[in-house]
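G.,

No rush on this.
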Amino acid sequence: MSCKETVAFFKNRAKVEEDYSRSMQKLVQTTLKTMDHSRPGGGPLNTQQAAWQRLVEVHETLASNRMKFSITLHEMSEYLNNYVKSKESVRRKLKDTEQRYQKAIEETETLLEKARSKYEVQSGEWERLLVKSGNSKTESGAPISGGGGMTSASFSHGGGAPNSMNAISKTKNVGSAVSGIFSKHKGSTQESLERMGQEAGVKAKVANEGYKRLLNQTNAMRRDFYDVQLPKILASVMGLIEEVDQFLKFSLGKYAYTYESAVLADAITLKPIDTSGEGAAAPVGMVEMVGGIDTKTDLDAYLQITARSGGRINRSSIPYKEYEMSTRARLYANPRPIFGVPLDVQLSRDKHPVPMILAKCADAVEAFGLQNEGIYRQSGQSSQVNKLRNEFDLDAEHVDLRSNAYVGDINTITSVLKMYLRELPGGLVPPSQRTAMLSFFPAGEPDNVPPEMTAYSHGDDELEMAQKVSGLAEAIRNMPVPNRNTVAYLFAHLDKVQAFQEFNMMNSENLGIVFGPTIAPPGNSPADAAVDIRRSTKLVRFILDNRRAIFEAI
């Protein structure tokens, strides 16, 4: 196993021990809290509780031992890792040194090969010219002399100079190339050949000297590397390997010793060694702790404590206690709807003479809306109207229209009231009384009657007016009590509204247009709808113009 693998093992082993220690500590804390809750009075511990507490303390010591072992392993892994990094740096330096020498030798050998090739080419060219010059002299019968004072011995080196047999062999190998050269110098003189031979000899000598110099340099470098440097590098590597192996062995030995010490500490914690002298209490292990539990004594002590603190037992039945819901929750659980509910049903349920929505809306209008132009003619925002409708449908008793949320929104209040009157089952005026009241306003009667002509006790139609007043009073008197009271309350409110017509522009005629179809809705015939609306408008207008006379006659 390598040092890196050992470092990884130490790290993982430290993590295992750390997790074990933390889990044990968490278990100890949880157990101690549970024990504290089990005896809220804080009284003396019984034998079982005392044993439990000592057992938990033992586990806490075990957790502490393992945490110490984990810390030691972590320190060992860090130290070994740093050591490995330092030795790895040394190894890389040795490797780099060996590679530099190798590269230098390879570069020198490459230059040597180039010098050797150049030397062979120059020597071959000189040899070719010597042969050509000698052949020319032989053919002409001239005496043969040395080639420029140079011989083959001038090129001798460690391996010897090329001999004449090699020269002849090389001459044959060049074949056609030599023939080509000769063809170029076919007309050359003997002197020209000798001069060219001398030049080629000089070049061959220079190439030979360069080749020998590089050869000596390369051999010297190789001898220095293989005989001196490489053995040093190998010796350093072997020393490094031996040192690392010894340190790894030392680290593993330290791990073994530390592990054994941790296990031994756990063993001593579970079963302490008796080092006390004679007469001293011997330490106890976990087995002795559990063996010291006396269940009978614990039970007797518990019964005595219970008898002293329990007092007399209440044997009476436990009374039922109803859950007190909030006001809002009770409203949602038991709503008191009014929209679409018959008038007599809701008034009987709520114990009120008139609907609360009418009383509250009329009160709000009279408080801060009588001078609003177009009151009851203008409609409120649909979303706000529906919101206020839902609040009234939940419980009209708890709706506060004088709050700041509604003071500036009078049109929403008037729209909700008109919606309520429209949705009353059977209408505000029962069908029989509605027919009787509308009969006083035939379809052929003109629409635009001046107000002074609809008021009681004026003009030649005094008798007709008295009959209308008496007939309408009779019809209202015959209504059921809830309807009669509601109609009287509504017209009393509208009378106050028209009293401020100078500001709100809502006279009896305009109020009749708004409330006529609501109080006396048209019949089911679409053809008669327009006529019915005009008649109901006249009805409301007439009642408002003669309200006091009509309702005093009831």
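When you get to it, here's the other one too:
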Amino acid sequence: MHVSSGLTISNFTEHIWTLPAFPMLTVLSMFYYIYLRRRARTATRGELMNNRRAIESSRPLPINVELVQYAKEVLDFSSHYGSENSMSYTMWNLAGVPNVYPSSGDFTQTAVFRTYGTWWELCPSARLPFTRTPPDFHSQDYVELAFEEPVYPTAVHVLETYHPGSVIKILACSASPYSQNLPADIRWEVLWSEAPTKVNSPQARQFSPCIKQINFPTNLIRLELNSSLLDYYTELDAVVLHGVRERPVLSLTTAMIAMDDDEDEETDDVLDCLNKQFNATALRESTTNGYFDKLPYELIQLILSHLTVPDLCSLSQTCKLLYQHCCDPLQYIHLSLQPYWAKINDTALKYLQPRCVLVQWLNLSWTGNRGTISVSAFSRFLKVCGSELLRLELSCGHFLNETCLEVVAETCRNLQELNLSSCDKLPPPAFNHIAKLYNLKRLILYRTKVEQTAMLSILNFCAALQHLSLGSCVMIEDYDTVASMMGARCKKLRTLDLWRCKNITENGIAALASGCPLLEELDLGWCPTLQSSTGCFAKLARKLPNLQKLFLTANRSVCDSDIEELAANCTNLHQLDILGTRMVSPASLRKLLESCKDLSLLDVSFCSQIDNRVVLELNANFPNVFIKKSFTQ
């Protein structure tokens, strides 16, 4: 029924009483709809949950037959614990039926992300956070999964087998990964989201949040995760998508009570302002700005500096004065667009461009995938806005190609920090351009295809490097040569990530220990060619007294003498991972804990001489140290 805006309540009431009996039911339903809508806007979150569950419990069975699908393949992810050349602990284990569930524990057949807890935020390589990050943006990692058949989702189940609780958001995409042509407008709809919460038990569970119904079929699901509250690495086994082929007919009440839908839509509308020009003509017609005319310019700028980008977009449309403030380039010195990755496209960059001419920190991580940002738009933006850049975050930017890095190198001459983490689609020749960024202090190339020739050139010309990540860079043939160049050129190096470097030997370690005496953090996890019998770990301990974090994960040769050398020489140690060694005894660990007063993290998982009884004893004697001991059920 359509009611014109000019119809009064009294006329409307008289009109409905003249209708036949059956239309009366429709009118009563409309009043009930209005009542529920008002209640949904005023009720607490708990009341809304109860209301929604009560209504859902009384729904009739769907006419459509529900399909149950496991993920067909893993399309994209931000990080994983495993290597690029195996299946152990990799995201690819999320494809297909469960391997482990319902068992609990640490299993190699599951998907595991690279970090957990807050330990990585407390080490020397930690980066400063961006200001203006929305308070409801908590995502640290993501994984995208493709399913065989598009459906209207009715449920999503995540099978978690160890330390559950990291999933904080589930999204669905309108574009099919198996379509030959991508649609012009790609939509991502949030099915469910929640702030990180602590799950006390490490046992397996099936996580089945109550999801929102959407108006398009999907076979592309994205999980976003935050592991900051976890006591250890989370492990995921499989994801199950339930859905129907035909769009279900929603009842009035079901369509009404979607708890956060109105809020999400308002945020989306605000973000759409990035894709449109502000109506400056209308603002010029305003003759007064109220009391804001009496405030100093600097004070208004300070107040506005606490607003997020969508808030600035909204505020800019209120009056001429605030429009000028919201468009002031000084408001965009630090700009993170990662929280809005699903909305950022060529048009958004175009209209942000005049405001970003002074930007110094820019975060475009996770943005631009599936064609939403073109190479030409990115290049135009950087050519205008890149001259002052000091920090550029491009993690998981799969739209990047060699032209993009060439523009970065030619335009961002003052750049000090560059993050290309998990940009695994960048071709190897692209990395040669990084050598032109002589002022680089931080370079993150985790899970990229950088080759040895390019890396040697970068190290030769970027001698100011202080933080370098080469974790899981499988295209480098000889890490000893690379390490020798680091020792010769990078005298200021403070942190180095060589996670899963397959061929570094004691020669490379010797070059690092002698040439980089300022090292405070060194990750040599899963480097199988290092052997304690060569004396390489003892040499590290003697030459690098400033070490605060040392990961020797899965090196079975680490022994008591190595631990004793660390206890004698590296008394500033905060974090130590010796997972998987068979040669370390409880006695040497006691010496370490007595000497290293600042030690806060010690991982002794799968250390055969360190059983649960020893861990309990050490915990009792050294209560300030978090001693990690993984288990397999």
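DSSP finds 19 helices and 21 strands in the chain. The mean pLDDT is 88.

Enjoy the weekend,
O.
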